Amino acid sequence: MKRNLSDLDATQLKGQVVLVRSDLNVPLEDGRVTDDQRIRASLPTFRLLLKGGARVVVLSHLGRPKGMTDARYSLSPVAERLSEHLGRSVRFIPEVVGAEVSAAVAEMEDGDIVLLENTRFLPGDTANDAELSAAWAGLGSIFVNDAFGTAHRAHASTSGLAEAMLAKGGQALAGLLLQRELRYLQEALADPERPFIAILGGAKISGKIDVIAALLPKVDRLLIGGAMANTFFKAIGLEVGASLVEDDRLDMARELMAEGGDRLVLPVDCVLTREIAPAVRTWNADRERVQEGDRIADIGLRTRTLYAELLADARTVVWNGPMGVFEIDAFAEGTESVADALADACDRGALGIIGGGDSAAAAVRMGVAGRISHISTGGGASLDLLSGADLPGVTSLSED
Questions:
Q1: Active site residues
Q2: Which of 34, 111, 281, 343 has its CA 20 to 30 A from that of 357?
Q3: What whole-number distance in Å separates Cα of residue 166 and Cα of residue 183?
């Protein structure tokens, strides 16, 4: 069992330099944070550390600067927003590692917090460079990984830093956010209250084959949406027109349907169009009535009703992936209807978990996010966890 930050007594924090790997990868526009959900999710860990008198050094990535300094991906605006939420100054250090960082840490007093520049300005982060990890570990005595969104990656600022901290005799702990993510996602799989329903959407079966294979033996129903449904349609001989299909996964789709039987539920109708674009003509049709040249862009009206009825009795629900081309309003209604049905299920006492990404965005857009039991901050990490894979950012932490 991995050690958590909550396992520490507050007296063990005072005066300690604690490095925290957070996921502050938030959207920016004109140098301003446009959605601070991930910042807010990280606040409990920061507050606990600061209250205990720790000297907090925060590391995070933002965007994909490809190992080069790029002002568009600077964390400076994040430091400003974090300061607002914490009600205290968060000093921004415009370097990732080196003499300026070491000097700033040496000047810290109990209860201070600094944010270093984007870890991915250095190519060594994603390359899991051991020297870079050791340099960060040399700054303090405790490492807290609170970045669930990157826990499935073996990077220098995640698993590498944990290993380097343990190698020097320090501690590597899970933060409160990471602890919460693991508790919800692992509990959902370990002993789910039934009926247990999983909802999977998105473009490709291939991207979620491990998740489907892991969930099928455990769920009472697995509801399919998004473009991955098209591959299942074609596998059973239905016309899919010009829709996105993975032809090389047709045999896999047939195998999954044979294994799942009536537990694997496909859409019964769909929203069609001739072009995936805003402000185009759309119409609803049964899945058997798709014509050559049609494009399937969302689950249909009857499918939304069917999925809502199945969710009405659910006691545990895990959802990852949109039901249609969610980025375009005309094709977002299926995803939004599932978000609404899941919120209703949670209101009735179900445990509802959303695995980040467009599914989470739909819940926010529908105004139902506050009614969902748990919305994950990491889409890729949640998928890996649901598929039964080990997360390097977790396995590298201290054992209890």
A1: 38, 204, 357, 380
A2: 281
A3: 24
